Amino acid sequence: MQPTDILKQYFGYSSFRPGQEEVIKTLLARRDCLAIMPTGAGKSLCFQIPGLMLPGITLIISPLISLMKDQVDTLVNQEIPAVYINSQCTWDELRQRFSEIRAGRVKLVYISPERLQNEFFTSFMQTQPISLVVIDEAHCVSQWGHDFRPSYCAISAWVEALPRRPVVAAFTATATEKVKKDMQQLLGLREERVFVGGFDRPNLYFRVVRDTDRTRFILAYLASHREDSGIIYAATRKEVDRLYTEIRHQGFSVGRYHAGMSDEARKKEQERFTYDKIQVIVATNAFGMGIDKSNVRYIIHYQMPKNIESYYQEAGRAGRDGGPGECILLFSRQDIMIQKYLIEHSVHTVEQQQREQDMLNRMVGYCETRGCLRQYILSYFGERPEWTACGKCGNCDQEVVEEDQTNIVRPICACVDELKGRFGMTLVCDILKGSQSAKVKQYGFQRLVLFGALSNFTGREIRDSVRQSVLDGYLQQSEGKYPVLSLTALGRQVLAGKERAIQKVAVRQEPELAAVPKKAKKKTVGTIDEEALRPIFDVLRQLRLELAQDENIPPFVIFSDATLWAMAQERPHTLEEMSNIKGVGAFKLHKYGPQFIEALHSFE
């Protein structure tokens, strides 16, 4: 049997996504590999298919119990022999699962890295034929990553202590060059092949909303997306609780999740969200890697995250089924001060502080750029797309007008030139605004000719113009904890009156309008007309929910939203026609196919 046969039989797809097949072939050839693939790229299939084809057992080391359960539920629902072993298993469950492993009736075993420290588990596994060890979320091994887990550092020694070394495969969604090297070294990979998949997620729509009433925006957005499932990330427990209370008071189906809640309360809320009993969950980033829910349609960040890696991983939890997803970041300059404070009080080495600050600066750049957001993200991860505008992000869609801004840019350039490149954006803005700040008084800058030169503009307008002058090349900003501004050759041309500063100016919207822009309504899903097919989709979704409740599994385990939309469009009349729908494997075809065909017949 070939990998494509298993792909079709068990998972219902006739072809692999980009990058999957090469990883699978590498593991089947008994060679180590490191695969860096974005969230939603289908990493799980890359090790599940080899796990079914290789002799013996595949051991999957996964960081979160909830993630194990979701993946095992999905596999078992497709009659794939998989189990998980973790602290939530009862003694009888553990005894039964070890017995099944010993009898050779299990192919995929999910565990947490901490389980490797259990002497009985280690002794037992040393007697079993392990062909493949998979390390999911492998970036956790690096202190330079954003989810460091000390227990990951013991994996390499545990693998080497096995009587026969298995193939080792490491997977992660995002990684800088430093984290990548740590994974290769600390996980003990040998002669590994390294795969870095394309980071672009074309089904995701990215948007930054600046300086708005955030709560008002969220309530407006939820009102226009009542049927969709989504996650709202907030920076603190206090903010999560406040938002949850406000959203619930407005009548929305909402839950919350943060580290201040009990383990039982967190588990209950996550299950309510996973099983579609609530539509939206408000959470801190503690609600993270354990989310395998495929039908999340939007991610809203209430505050700016600390770096692009964290943001892209969290935003990537939308649209994992290949359907449309929207990723919105609500940004205020105050977010920068909060993140700087956290860096200064949580990072103890100068080198690490500098690195964290540099990453924060890149995150701020994303929030403030007026260029293509998708290109900005891809460039951060080392990709150089041929296009400069994707046409599918908030900035590319933003209504803008070109205006001659020379009367603003020239005094900005003059002020920066006067300061001789020794000060940053905040002080430049204070001087131009005419602010009597402590630093202005300390240096006597209230006596400068340019003091108050732009006093008829708001502080936000001045800052936006300074930032845009950097982006347009009139100014340049240094790196580091205290970035300073200096004048460029082009800026000197404007200052000398030899160039006009023509800039694109965004048309500002009210929060209610900004919450539902033209493309955010998502009237189509790929080539599918969502508006026309919504009644059929809703019937199929209700049937899926009822079946899931009967089996006590998450609805997306039965079929993804993308598969339901395809059914609604194609309206298969027979099982043979149903088998051609993406996501309908042989087992699910016969288990669920007749009921979904019957539901579709009601529309004939």
Automatic annotation (TrEMBL):
Enzyme Commission number: 5.6.2.4
Pfam families: DEAD, Helicase_C, HRDC, RecQ_Zn_bind, RQC
Alphabetical keyword list: ATP-binding, DNA damage, DNA recombination, DNA repair, DNA-binding, Helicase, Hydrolase, Isomerase, Metal-binding, Nucleotide-binding, Zinc
Helicase C-terminal domain span: 213-361
Record-linked SMART domains: DEXDc, HELICc, HRDC, RQC
Helicase ATP-binding domain mapped to chain residues: 24-193
Domain of life where this protein originates: Bacteria
Cofactor(s) demanded: Zn(2+); Mg(2+)
Domain HRDC: 530-604
GO molecular function: DNA helicase activity; hydrolase activity
InterPro entries the UniProt entry points to: DEAD/DEAH_box_helicase_dom, DNA/RNA_helicase_DEAH_CS, DNA_helicase_ATP-dep_RecQ, DNA_helicase_ATP-dep_RecQ_bac, Helicase_ATP-bd, Helicase_C-like, HRDC-like_sf, HRDC_dom
Record's catalysed reaction(s): Couples ATP hydrolysis with the unwinding of duplex DNA by translocating in the 3'-5' direction
Gene3D superfamilies according to UniProt: HRDC domain, P-loop containing nucleotide triphosphate hydrolases, Winged helix-like DNA-binding domain superfamily/Winged helix DNA-binding domain
PROSITE patterns to which the protein is assigned, alphabetical: DEAH_ATP_HELICASE (PS00690), HELICASE_ATP_BIND_1 (PS51192), HELICASE_CTER (PS51194), HRDC (PS50967)
PANTHER family from the UniProt entry: ATP-DEPENDENT DNA HELICASE Q1, DNA HELICASE RECQ FAMILY MEMBER
Family: Belongs to the helicase family. RecQ subfamily.
Protein name listed in UniProt: DNA helicase RecQ
